[in-house]
Amino acid sequence: MQARRLSIITGIVVSVALLLGLLLVQVWLSDKQRSAVNKDLPPLELTMVLPSPADTGPSTSDPDRVRTVIESKFHVKLNLIAWPRGRDYQTKYVSMLMANNAPDFAIDLSPDGGSSLILNGVYADLSSFVSPASMPNYFKYWMTEHELRQYQLHNQFVRAPVPYDRNVYRSYYIRKDWLERLSLPVPESYEQYVETLRAFTFRDPDGNGQQDTYGFSTSGNGKQISEEWPEYVKNDLLYPAYMENNRLVDMKTDPRISRVIDDILSLMKEGLSDPDWFLNQDNEHIEKAVQGRVGIVMGNTRDFAFDSNPFSLQARGKKANASADWIPFTPFGANRPLGTAIEASSPFVFLKTNADKHPEKVSKLIEILDWLCGEEGYLLSHYGLEGQHYTRSGNIITLLPDASAMTGRGGASSVWSFFTPEAPSVLGLTVIDPRMTEHDKTVADFLVRLPVKEKLGTFLIPPQEIDVGAFRDKLDEYQIRMLYSDKSGQRWPEYRKELMDNYNGDVILRHYENQVRTARGTK
């Protein structure tokens, strides 16, 4: 009897094993068939709108290797539209939308973080696309689920933050060779800074026998006071916003702006700043610095003045004048910050009209983005090919000094670094660049030591149904009026009250402040 039971049990086990085996074979065959079908199908066509790095672009001598790998690996055909960051990017992008020519994927660079387009239902819901399961690298290395929840607008999950470098590189840069020619020290106070402006403007720092140089320059794009003026920090205002005594301080709307206006006016009247700063567009002031026409500008990236970055102010400046030597400095001492820690800014989005018709395109783009977030995609998009552009020993990446600058520092492939910052340590990698000079190492060391104000700790979401853009536009209008018409900051309290009462300024700032208090648990 017992033997019979054992025989029955053995038979059942064998039958189950056979069934499982057949099922696995069926699954394997199904996968093989699916793979074959995918290869037989034409590649999925995807249109992407991206910001491109300055001074880079495709070239026949430097093919886009990243694009080639992506198209092969993910069986897609890419229509890549890349425009430089600046005033024209968002204008061109919105024009595409209005012409019913929406891309499948875009980076939204609007000042409101896409708020107005979200309210108009332009962007697709991401709930079924963006998750730790679908984007493991994105969430492992670059973003937390908590940050993603904070980033949502108007209770809609229609945007997600592009990974960003959490280090702050905001610093002023000065022509060291000009200082040495004039026997001046690097300014360590605002008073010394103003004296340096005078010397750079009136004492012929380049030795060409002409008064054709200026102390400081920035770009107002013909519509606003740049946030780069040191006069903000002089009046205890830090970029862009921070909490002080449990109250939100928004740099450009603060009551102290009246003093900022008067201080800027003082420099302008004395002729110490570039007279065309207000009309300068985007990086036009940097071009003037490269040409040797101004001696002080602001930079915001680690390699802004590296010898080893061929597109830096330092490298390009040396091509124009071999003596040019740009170094970082702050006119406010070693312990005074110039701004706050970094928050996420630009979102990546998918267009609703396309996503509703072709959700498979969104899924494929998510795969590509997550690949860029991981080690393979990161290394290729930033440093190129192993053996050709760098060598690797464990987690140590050593760039080859004779390799072409086709990736993160110029060339067709550099556009693909749009999705991840130059922060290899996030992936546990250490990058050694033998091209870095002692000058570069000194610059990097200075930037690491710069103090930074604590960040807000949350993303500021504008109140629903309120046009924050109209408020900011009117603010810029009033501040420019004080500079060029009133020629005084005296009327700022009057203008500010108008902004708070009639342009929802009070509602907007109170809404922002409550968000920060809630995030910090101090409400």
Which range best describes the helical content: under 10%, 10-25%, 25-40%, 40-55%, 55-70% or over 70%? 40-55%
Task: Kindly report the spatial arrangement of strands forming the biggest sheet.
Answer: 2-1-3-11-4
Shape verdict:
globular
Q: What is the average of the pLDDT values?
A: 89
The tally of strands reads 14
Our count of helices gives 19
N- to C-terminal distance: 77 Å
Radius of gyration: 27 Å
Largest sheet: 5 strands, mixed
Task: Output the structural class.
Answer: alpha/beta
Low-confidence stretches: 1-6, 16-37, 55-61
What fraction strand?
5-15%
Question: What does this protein look like?
Answer:
By secondary structure, this protein is an alpha/beta fold. The protein is 41% helix and 12% strand. It has 19 helices and 14 strands. The chain has a five-stranded mixed sheet. It has a four-stranded mixed sheet with strand order 6-9-5-10. Strand 12 (390-393) and strand 13 (396-399) form a beta hairpin. Helix 11 (284-290) packs across helix 12 (313-320), helix 14 packs across helix 15 (375-383) and helix 17 (468-486) packs antiparallel against helix 18. It starts with a helix and ends with a helix.
Task: Name the features.
12% strand; single chain; globular; 523 residues; alpha/beta
Helix-strand layout with pairing:
Layout: H1 2-40, E1 44-52, H2 65-73, E2 76-84, H3 87-98, E3 105-107, H4 115-119, H5 136-142, H6 145-150, E4 160-161, E5 171-175, H7 176-181, H8 190-202, E6 214-216, H9 231-234, E7 241-244, E8 247-250, H10 257-270, H11 284-290, E9 294-299, H12 313-320, E10 326-329, E11 347-350, H13 352-357, H14 359-373, H15 375-383, E12 390-393, E13 396-399, E14 430-432, H16 438-448, H17 468-486, H18 492-502, H19 505-520
